[in-house]
Amino acid sequence: MIGRPSITLRTRNLSVASSAFKSNDKSASKEAHEVRKIDDEPHKSNSFKRNSIKYLKVAISIGGYALIFSISTLIALQTFFNKHHQQQNNNNNTNIYIDNNLENDNNYKIVYITTVIIIGCGIGLSLIEASSRKIEYNFYESEKKREVWEYDNYVEGEQREMVELYSLKGMEENDAKKVVELLSKYKDLFVDIMMTEELNLLPVELLLSPIHTAISTFFSFIAFGMAPLLPFYICTYYYYQIYQIAINRNLLLSILIFIVEVLLFLIGSFKSKYYTGDWWIEGLISSITGIVSIIVSYFLGEAMYSMLS
């Protein structure tokens, strides 16, 4: 059996082409369009599909949500327990040792509640994402079967629809008819084009399967959601057990906020590698999102304590 021959296409290197456009470099633009084998083309969509970058796409998206969710929960709980702690200190004359016990006990509560919430939300979110992906798969397959059936039974109608679509996009009607007539000779190609042009549906092969979506979502959410908790874990379960000294929660939260902001900046910067935008701008936007979440969560914690006290 003869294998499929290697195909050489004149395709552009998108990373080089994008840089050439930003710097108005015509020679670089020409280089980006040099002939290369399709298997060697570092096209972004090919990277997502063939090099498992699509797993990273899910990871960085879910990771950003997890970080913001984690920091928001921690800030709200910190504000609540800080108010509660201050109230207890005002009402009771406690020594330093008891105060440390109370401080560490509140730290333990914050860690416990946040961890349980993150794990529960990670499980729920992974199931929701898998269900949504399954719906996308089923919808795509059902629509593709319909398009194939219409092609087999009345291809003239499909051709007429495509001519109308291309005409609406500015193509001369005669040219549109020629293009559609040529494309419609190739069933699989024409069906894929109809799926994209008529229904705006991209091939599901570009997406993770439902089970892989669930796994990637869960572990991404847990990993990024737990990362900000590391200072609390260390100080609550290790440092306090050895030295019997509870680290002030404000110090812990300062470390936590620093970790979250760095991770958010890295996630935003990493997104720019596979999407448009400058890495530092995307990183800055992602960090600002975290800052806004922190401020909102602080006032929510204040409001929650006022309502419950």
Q: How would you sum up this structure, described in words?
A:
This protein is an all-alpha fold. The protein is built from 11 helices and 2 strands. It has helices at 14-23, 26-32, 44-50, 53-91, 96-168, 173-183, 187-199, 210-226, 230-243, 249-274, 279-308; strands at 8-9, 36-37. The chain has a two-stranded antiparallel sheet. Helix 3 (44-50) crosses helix 4 and helix 10 (249-274) runs antiparallel to helix 11. The chain is elongated and about 90 Å long.
Summarize this structure briefly.
The protein is mostly helical. The chain has helices at residues 14-23, 26-32, 44-50, 53-91, 96-168, 173-183, 187-199, 210-226, 230-243, 249-274, 279-308, and strands at residues 8-9, 36-37.
Question: Could you name the key traits of this structure?
Answer:
about 300 residues; mainly alpha; two-stranded antiparallel ribbon; 11 helices; disordered N terminus
